[in-house]
Amino acid sequence: MKTIVAAAIGECVHVAGVSNFLRLAEQVGWRVIFLGPATPIKKILEVAEIEKADLVGVSYRLTPENGERLLGEFAEEADALKSKGVNFAFGGTPPIVERIEKLNFFEICFNGTESTEEVVSYLKGQRIKIQEEQSFPQKTVDRIKWKSPFPLIRHHFGLPTMQSTLDGIKQIADSKMVDVISLGIDQDAQENFFHPERQTKRRMGAGGVPVRTAEDYQKLYEASRSGNFPLMRTYSGTDDFLQLAEMYIETINIAWAAVPLFWFNKMDGRGPWDLEGSIREHQKLMGWYGERNIPVEANEAHHWGMRDASDVIFVVSAYLAAYNARAFGVKDHIVQLMFNSPPGTSSAMDIAKMLALMELVSDLETPNFKTWKQTRTGLLSYPVDLEQAKAHLATTVYVQMALKPDIVHVVGYPEADHAVTGLEVVESSKMARKAIEHALQSQIDLTSSENIQLRVQELITDAKLLIEAICQLSQSNSIDPLTDPAVLSAAVTEGFLDAPQLLNNPHGRGEISTMIDHRGACVAVEKTTGKSITEKDRVLQRL
Question: Alpha-carbon distance 453 to 524, whole Å?
């Protein structure tokens, strides 16, 4: 373990910057010794010698002229330590740093404008060269490990015109606030990219940016090549899956694919495929990305949650998606954990649901199958009032940090009112980053309360019961029922997987009734009485 000795030097009493620096150092494994405010040069050097410091950090935030003289004296007296291999870092205001850099004594000078990634990278022994793409990992898993213990920040973005989207992407990249830009493309592009005869001008820009050529994707990617060089990804589409996948690799170096198991077909009106056929195609798509070592996100459970499915069905659908991802060769599986779905779910029951889900999914891990946690705020949970929405964003991200996510998918605070602009993406990401930093610094354990752990075990028991019931739908002894498109389709059409908002659906039953109970959990209830029903009884009604 390396050692840092740090202090505010001379007459300077401002220690907030030093404290933040040392907090980050502790999180990445340094032993830290803080000497406090207004520390004499002699004391800093004596302690550094005694403690065998690898790095000495000093801060000065007063008048630049005074600081320049003081730090010049410090450099002279510390030269002997530097000759022994001790490194020195300085932090101060931009005017002071401008002067101190001319001393050519400090290995690095921080002026307060650096991103968390830049500071953490320095502490990890990496040297970020600003504005160089190779300094920022361009593969998802590499970037997760590089940024740890901080999660990657992902944000959705796509406006109704190419130019506004290009401008916004450049603004987002330059801000260095976002690690992953998820392109929101319009519905026509998702469904009819390779079928211009099916496209209509009326739909252009509906739901996102109207990309119509591979060159459009290339332009969007090029707009992101500045700042912290964020990764880029987009929808897998609802038709021509493999053609789109090939283009995404060639044009935007797609960070990961989002592949549902049961959705993006006639069941949700987003594509031309029937349920069983789309399951087969999505399995092929998972395998295609798996062969190329590109991660796959489970774009699954939250679609059930947004349609008021019970917590048990939410958990089981996520497990089935992960199970199929592993079966079809995915090596890195990103599990999306959308909180606040349905919106009335309490924070405690949200945490319990996600813990149960991750316990089941983690059991699938092998040396060749790794899972990564991605949390996000529920899309339908945002208030329309923008000030309330800002508070909602920050508090929900703080709660999500209880799961120690690898990726936080930030949902822009104005989403209930309008599609976010580039500036609003930056603002939302700043709010989320502060909530994340606060959680990493001081969050108590939100997972260990008795009521949460009781709910976790209840959900695991019920989920296993439902999974076993789905297995019993199999008509074949030679095919794994949990990867058999016919069985998975039947799980929906027979009502084992169901949601109230699937009423009058071409595939889903919509017969289940759910409610938020006194704990804040979403449970199945009897239609006529409104009383909760056990998962065992619900399953028996379907068998």
Answer: 20
Q: Give the tokens for residue 87.
A: 């490194």
pLDDT at 105: 96
The domain tally of the chain equals: 3
DSSP 58: E
Torsion of Cα atoms, 415 then 417 then 423 then 427, to 10°: -60
Helical packing angle, 386-400 and 422-442, nearest 10°: 40
Distance, first Cα to last Cα, the chain: 59
8 A C-beta contact, residue 220 and residue 232: yes
Which pLDDT score, from 0 to 100, does residue 68 have?
95
Asked whether the beta carbons of 242 and 285 are under 8 A apart, the reply is yes
The pLDDT assigned to 45 comes to 97
**Per residue in 267-294, pLDDT tens?**
998 889 999 999 999 999 999 999 999 9
Residues 6+ apart with CB under 8 A from 23: 441
Q: Where residue 71 sits, what CATH number does that domain have? A: 3.40.50.280
Q: From start to end of 323-412, where are the E strands?
A: 332-338, 370-376, 407-410
Task: Decide: 248 and 220 in contact? Cβ < 8 Å.
Answer: no
Spatial distance between the Cα atoms of 445 and 433, rounded to a whole number of angstroms: 19
Quick: pLDDT tens for 150-179.
Answer: 999 999 999 999 999 999 999 999 999 999
Same domain, 238 and 320: yes
Which residues, at least 6 apart from 400, have a Cβ–Cβ distance to it below 8 Å? 337, 339, 375, 376, 377, 408
Angle between the N-to-C axes of helices 485-493 and 450-471, in degrees from 0 to 180, rounded to the nearest 10: 110
Residue 332: φ, ψ to 5°: -125, 115
286 φ/ψ angles, rounded to the nearest 5 degrees? -55, -45
**Same domain (yes/no): 316, 168:** yes
Task: Please report the beta strands in 271-365, taking only residues with DSSP state E, as ranges in sequence order.
Answer: 296-298, 332-338
| Segments of the chain scoring below 70 in pLDDT | 127-131
- List alpha helices for 128-240, DSSP H: 140-147, 162-175, 187-192, 214-223
Contact by Cβ (8 Å): 205, 162: no
Closest CA to 464 of 312, 262, 349, 260: 312
Q: Which domain holds residue 64?
A: 3-113
Rg (CA), the chain: 26
351 close to 335: Cβ distance less than 8 angstroms: no
Amino acid found at 335: V
Contact 498, 510 (CB under 8 A): yes
